[in-house]
Input
Amino acid sequence: MVLAVGAGQSQAQCQAWINTHGITHPVLSDASGTVYNLFGDGYVPYNSIMSCEQIVLLTDSGFNETLVRSTIEAALLDVVTVNHTPLGDTEETGVAIPVSAEIIAQSSFVADYPQMSWRADAGLWTNVTMTNSGGDMYTADIPGQVSGTTVDYYISVQQEDGCNRIYPAPDEFFSFYVGPDTIPPVIDHTNLAQYGEAQLPLVIMADVTDNLGIASVSLEYQVNGGGFSTLPMSTSNADYSATIPDTLVVGDMVEYRINAVDASAAGNSVYDPASGYYTTEIIDQIPAVVIDLDGAHNSGPAIQALIETSIGSAEYTTSMPPTLGLYQSVFVCLGVYGSGNHQLTGAEGDALAAFMDAGGCVYMEGGDTWYYDPQTSAHDYFNIVAVSDGSADAGPQENGVVGSFAEEMNMNYNTGSSYNNWIDRINPGSGALAVLENSSPVYNTVISNDAGDYKTVGSSIKLGGLSNGNTQVQAYMDAILAFFGVGSSQPTPTPTPECINHGDVTLDGDITAGDAQLAFLITLGSHQPTYEEECAADCNGDGEVTAGDAQGIFLVALGSSPSCADPL
Output
């Protein structure tokens, strides 16, 4: 067993730690330090390892990984493994019921073990010694029961050396019912109200279970009210599916319901839905969806607004949609460490990978997802080389990389902790391109990858943290959408400000000899001007800055000339 102690932490803080790091073991809130103070040297972490017989095997301050691992591995050698498939309900009465289990012991069994213990209708327990049926398999019979009986049972193991075991667990047991079955199957199905034409053919899937077993599952459907047909649904374990064979096009409406019949003598039957029919409309693909898994929710809404400005519409959700095939492009927000960071799960990664296999385009941002967090099947599609865990040093600017779709773009970046914390260092893999790089220190923050069948943009910073008016950020989003080929979006060029030739080179609102001097330094190449400075220094408005412009500005400063080409 693994137990963590949150020294000085409230329950809420412990829960936040669990959520941030995806912890599966208990974390004990120790707000007053009671548990922490039990350990004299006060060193964190403090490791204690107990055997399954509650014998302390190790207490150690710090983290000696080799010692901890070797202690655990040695203790596992004494653990009994029991593998058993619980018995289901049965309609057979008066017939012995065998209980079989694989029991892997580490030493000889104590006499009369392993045992299977059973009882009828919560009566007294009867212990039966299990016999070896070959290898590590052991069997014992529960006597035949009369109709209407509920039977409970469990398996226990005792070894001469090492750990004992009760399965499923102390004070727990398995149960089944003997007698006529009146319980219908359970159908677990999620209706997709819309189905993208690009996803066709239309596949209807359901999870169907029953306490006794399934005899059949079928799909009743019709297209555009043309009359119902019935298809058998094939199975893989409890997963059932059927593919509608009709040729479907955008605008078609499919109505359907699922019927399941169990293996009982009564043939209990159920329909889903219980009345009426589900409907699925065949639609063209939706251009984009923003999947905002970031707990801070400070980037997803900004991304949605930018997409809507560019192409008119974008869906927004805070969970993974049941099907991604409805969309041309997916924008995934995962957050940064300490502020709602979401670790992409294996199932979420598989869904994104399948979407890209089908030709979908994915933008994904996350400060920890590329290096620190566990990788999923989706990460390789981005062709990103994770370098290190990084630090809280993003910004103050993000600059477009030459040769990328963000070339010549320069945007400010929010350096607050909800945008800037442990920003992973990333580099492009072979064939991928760096899109944005951090200003100081210099490192890549956004990588694009054109794999031919699909395209990706991976970012270690939040798009919602970018700013520079809104013009360049909008142009950046337009460029991403154009790269993805989504909608009618074309990159919005950054508008060039009007070139005003007024002579105020220092841009302080007044024309002085200092302006003439700065104009002269520009002509000498001693000062690299901004766009506005260069325009102001071109006093005569002929498109270039010369010594004559500097002289003209000086005359304006003296009052000997009324103004440059454009009055101030």
